[in-house]
Write a structure and sequence with these properties.
The complex is a heterodimer of chains A (752) and B (226). Chain A has 752 residues and is an alpha+beta fold. Helices cover 37% and strands 22% of the residues of chain A. Chain A has a seven-stranded mixed β-sheet with strand order 8-10-7-11-9-12-13. Chain A has a seven-stranded mixed β-sheet with strand order 23-25-22-26-24-27-28. A six-stranded mixed β-sheet of chain A has the order 1-2-3-6-4-5. In chain A, a hairpin with a 6-residue loop joins strand 14 and strand 15. The longest helix of chain B is centred in the last third of the chain and has 13 residues. In chain B, helix 1 crosses helix 5. Chain B is built from five helices and eleven strands, in the order βαββαβαββββαβββα. Chain B has a nine-stranded mixed β-sheet with strand order 2-1-3-4-11-10-9-6-7, sandwiched between helices. A two-stranded antiparallel ribbon of chain B has the order 5-8. Classes of the chains: A alpha+beta (752), B alpha/beta (226). At the A-B interface, helix 8 and helix 10 of A face helix 1 and strand 6 of B. Chain A: It is found in: Cytoplasm. Chain A: Belongs to the FGAMS family. Chain A: Keywords: ATP-binding, Cytoplasm, Ligase, Magnesium, Metal-binding, Nucleotide-binding, Purine biosynthesis.
């Protein structure tokens, strides 16, 4: 990108034959030709830079767009949805005049290249999305997936990712209340670092990313712009890793959480004084994204003087300034008479703020550098009219064989002793073991509103001190299920997150998702994606929980090997009074344990099949969303009416895993009886969906049974909270001490 | 009458609002103080809250210690103003030399967040009179740089003068010398500790314990009865 002479619009028109490095910037030939067609000339270097990042897979969703439309088309009627897909984050009405915004995003590729900074800036990015909606961030969650727990590289990646999430989130003062940690060899070269954030605001404070009103000023504020993260969206997030290419470390951004904390406070103060017309955070594609999106969502055009952008490195070219993904920056549109006050607030918080342009009444985005016009485009063509691909997709040939390899036929334990040994092995396996070593590196107390945090079924935050109104958030995903059947796997992820929210007593309201897949250029991967999206959209329609936004992460593969298809689903719920929340831990000896739902022989993709047989095959558990909805209603009613004192959803690891967790957290054991019609193995280890286990005080037994009976939910008494062992009558007994040792020693031994 | 207790907000303070809430729950009136403002607004006591002031860059508390507000806090603390430093606030107090010793990175090199058991060693300070000596309490702890260190002479002196206010029990979470979790100055008006009493003031929130509330009721009683 030669700058002598400056590659202005005029110069580009006069020199049509100049070769531009479109391929190096990640554009395909037909995409470049389309840019030339749109402009009626060759693009300038700066224009090419903008198009290349904005038309990247990461920013344009070019492979996924046609499928994601289903989330809108199949969206259930839901009065709670205030802002839907397309904005920085969706906004949901939670009552009492409060609105909640939440979203999950991926920062997978950077976190593999540079675990600490990759994960840290993942938190930073999602938090800015939430601030940009006008909300105060109140909590974060982190669904994480790594390679095999005992692989040497996992010891490089995991501690760095965890320290990065902690280092950034703790320093921002955001409680970390949930998420997941999953190990599987399929993520070895492609760890999944997803980050979610929840924010709270009053209805009237919702802000949108648009630039309206000719003459309004465009203010860039926050960190100075540097050379970090240039091309992060196009090069790093939108291509498959290849050992032969040079290290991509320079494309990873470096985070400064202190700066972000100041950005939060000064932005919220500016909102409170109603100084902001439109706002956009600078994340992927930096200024290219912020200017083109603000302009194309507004009514007019925009004129920007790039010379006014405060720089960390004065040698940056205009192309680099436009592409830089330096963190902790935001862009606000402010009426001229309010600019001084806006700048004053920034100064109070020691945040650099600069007017870099203004909204015009035309329809063009014009950018100037050293007096020359280096960009003149219709911003819509940059932000919204990128290429759309209908990638070919096909059910992979191996899918039938995989499903025929039935896990239900695997050898089962033949003696009680064998069953006991397998249970102990299961609760100690890396995926089922306690993640305390990880979660204790996150602050979950800050802000003083945390009602529930991991390892509870969902995180819960109080949002009103007087009324006790609160929100719950759970994230779930199971790549093994999705590999066996992506449609069902996506619905199981939704069902589990939905169930987890209800288990704590909150009413599920809305969904965000992070769809992690391999290369869309592989028809088999594309089929997994298409099936998962269809499954999720159908599931959300049936459960009445709309998808409010989310993120797609493709190209999670190394060479030919893609990760398991991994749709991660976040469900947000509301609870009228957090005093009625239901925890996981057993509370009192003598309380009766009831199993809700049906248990079938379902071991496909199960934790047992993985831990005991290193097997993945067959079909995942069946999904019955009507049953999930009924179960949720029962759990919420029981919590509201004080009929249950603890509850835990049953998912990977089955009933025994849930009982062991409740027992260890409560410091109280349990005596279990295998119910009629089930064998001990299926009772303890099946992963049938639509189930939960609850502890009912004896005084509530009749009322609780009557309620389940009247509503038609199968309920089975399976034991009692008692003693300091977990005993399965007639089978085996394990002391809490040996269970605790097995459950809690694994992760520190591997990673500390 | 009630007491007015100031809470300083430095850039990067995180638990300032939580501390204000704890003061309110105890029945006192919280007053927001700003780091750039030397004026303490005639408060009766000051809390330096937790967080990562100035990002903990350079060294935790090292930059905040030079804030305009600290000039007044240092001056008035020496004249007897009750001052409590929690976590980052404790770090600021040692950097400001209102308390002896220093805070280093945790010995295990990780951030740690846990429900920490403590023993109250001194129930005679301005901030601990509602506890009894020897009382065992649980208060959340969360820090990166919580390892209290001082030379042997200072440590012996602190012990001899009863100025170790809290000690870690069961687990030493950061490698602090002599399991020290909190200390006081000679006069007993300045107290610093790493755990966060403001996070243990409501039965529903956090760990569900309220073992931290006596900090704020102690100071309130002292001020009201003064």
């Amino acid at each position: 990108m030669s700058r002598t002479p400056l590659d202005t619009v005029e110069h580009a028109a006069a020199t049509p034959d100049v070769e531009l490095p479109w391929a190096e910037l990640g554009l395909k030939k037909d995409e470049y030709e389309r840019i030339v067609e749109i402009l009626g000339r060759r693009p300038t270097g700066a224009e090419l830079a903008m198009y290349s990042v904005m038309w990247s897979e990461h920013c344009s969703y070019k492979s996924s767009k046609i499928h994601l439309r289903q989330f809108g088309e199949k969206a259930p009627e839901n009065d709670a949805l205030l802002v839907g897909i397309g904005e920085n984050a969706g906004v949901v009405d939670v009552g009492q005049g409060y609105a909640v915004t939440f979203k999950v995003e991926s920062h997978n590729h950077p976190s593999y290249v540079e675990p600490y900074q990759g994960a840290a800036t993942g938190v930073g990015g999602i938090v800015r999305d939430i601030i940009a909606m006008g909300a105060r961030p109140v909590a974060v969650v982190d669904p994480l997936r790594f390679g095999a727990a005992d692989h040497p590289d996992t010891k490089r990646v995991l501690p760095g990712v965890v320290a990065g999430i902690g280092g950034y989130g703790n320093c921002l003062g955001l409680p970390n209340i949930g998420g997941e940690v999953v190990f599987d060899a399929c993520y070895q070269g492609n760890p999944l670092v997803n980050a979610g954030c929840v924010g709270v605001m009053r209805h009237e404070d919702i802000h949108l990313a648009k630039a309206s009103g000719a003459g309004n000023k465009v203010i860039l504020y926050g960190a100075r712009t540097g050379g970090d993260g240039i091309g992060g969206a196009s090069i790093l997030a939108s291509e498959t890793f290849d050992d032969a290419k040079p290290s991509k470390r320079p494309a990873v951004q470096v985070g400064d959480p202190f700066q972000e904390k100041l950005l939060i406070e000064c932005t919220l103060e500016a909102f409170a004084e109603k100084l902001v017309v439109g706002i956009q955070d600078l994340g992927a594609a930096g200024l290219s994204c912020a200017t083109s999106e603000l302009a194309s969502n507004g009514s007019g055009g925009m004129r920007v003087t790039l010379d006014d952008v405060p720089l960390r490195d004065s040698t940056l070219s205009p192309e680099e300034i436009l592409m830089s993904e330096s963190q902790e920056r935001m862009c606000a549109v402010v009426e001229p008479e309010k600019v001084d006050r806006f700048l004053e607030i920034c100064a109070k918080w020691d945040v650099i703020a600069t007017v870099i342009g203004e909204v015009t009444d035309g329809d063009r985005l014009e950018i100037f550098w050293h007096g020359g016009k280096i960009v003149e485009v219709d911003p819509r063509t940059v932000a919204h009219e990128g290429p759309v691909y209908e990638r070919p997709y096909a059910r992979p040939e191996w899918q039938d064989a995989l499903q025929a390899d039935d896990a239900n036929k695997l050898p089962r334990p033949e003696t009680a002793e064998e069953l006991k040994a397998q249970v102990l092995k299961l609760v100690a396996s890396p995926n089922q073991a306690s993640k305390k070593w990880i979660t204790q590196q996150y602050d979950h107390f800050v802000q003083g509103n945390t009602v529930l945090a991991m390892p509870e079924d969902s995180g819960m935050i109080r949002i009103d001190e007087k009324t006790g109104l609160g929100v719950a958030l759970a994230t779930d995903g199971n790549g093994r299920y999705a590999k066996l059947d992506p449609y069902t796997g996506a619905q199981l992820a939704l069902a589990e997150a939905y169930r987890n929210v209800a288990t704590t007593g909150a009413k599920p309201l809305a969904v965000s998702d992070c769809l992690n897949f391999g290369s869309p250029e592989d028809p088999a991967v594309m089929w997994q994606f298409v099936e998962a999206v269809r499954g999720l959209a159908d599931g959300c329609q049936q459960l009445g929980t709309p998808v409010t936004g989310g993120n797609v992460s493709l190209y999670n593969q190394t060479g030919e090997a893609a990760i398991h298809p991994t749709p991660v689903v976040a469900v947000l719920g509301v609870i009228d009074d957090v005093a009625r929340r239901t925890p996981v831990a057993f509370q009192e000896e003598g309380q009766l344990l009831y199993l809700l739902g049906d248990t079938r022989e379902e071991f496909g993709g199960s934790a047992w099949s993985q831990v005991v047989h290193d097997h993945l095959g067959g079909l995942p558990p069946k999904v019955d969303l009507e049953r999930e909805r009924l179960l949720a209603e029962i759990l919420i009613s029981a919590s509201r009416d004080g009929m249950i004192d603890s509850a835990h959803d049953l998912s990977d690891g089955g009933l025994i895993q849930a009982v062991v967790e409740s027992a260890l957290l409560g410091g109280k054991g349990a005596r279990l009886v295998v119910p009629d019609g089930l064998d001990a193995f299926t009772f303890l280890l099946s992963e049938s969906a639509g189930r939960a286990i609850v502890a009912v005080p004896r005084s509530e037994e009749v009322r609780f049974n009557d309620m389940c009976g009247a509503r038609g939910l199968p309920v089975t008494r399976v034991g009692v909270v008692d003693g300091d062992t977990v005993e399965v009558q007639g089978e085996f007994e394990l002391t809490l001490a040996e269970l605790r040792e097995a459950h809690e020693a694994t992760i520190p031994a591997l990673l500390a | 009458m009630t007491a007015r207790i100031g809470v300083v907000t430095f850039p990067g303070s995180l638990d300032d609002r939580d501390t204000q809430r704890a003061i309110r729950l105890a029945g006192a009136e919280p007053v927001a103080l700003w780091h750039k403002d030397k004026d303490l607004k005639q408060v009766d006591a000051v809390v330096l809250p937790g967080g990562f002031s100035y990002g903990d860059y350079l060294r935790a508390g090292a930059i905040s210690r030079f804030s305009p507000v600290m000039e007044t806090v240092i001056e008035q603390a020496k004249a007897g103003l009750p001052v409590l430093g929690i976590c980052n606030g404790f770090q600021v107090l040692t950097e400001a030399h209102l308390l002896p010793g220093a805070m280093l990175g945790n010995d295990h090199l990780h951030f740690i967040c846990r429900d920490q058991k403590l023993r109250v060693e001194n129930a005679a300070t301005a901030w601990t009179s509602d506890y009894s000596e020897g009382q065992e309490i649980f208060v959340p702890l969360k820090n990166m740089d919580g390892r209290y260190v001082a030379d042997e002479y200072t440590l012996d002196k602190l012990e001899a003068e009863g100025r170790v206010v809290f000690r870690y029990l069961d687990v030493n979470p950061n490698g602090s010398l002599r399991d020290i979790a909190g200390i006081t100055n000679e006069a007993g008006n300045v107290v610093g500790l790493m755990p966060h009493p403001e996070h243990a003031t409501e039965p529903l929130i956090g760990t569900g314990r309220t073992d931290g509330l006596p900090f704020f009721t102690s100071i309130l009683k002292k001020l009201v009865n003064a």
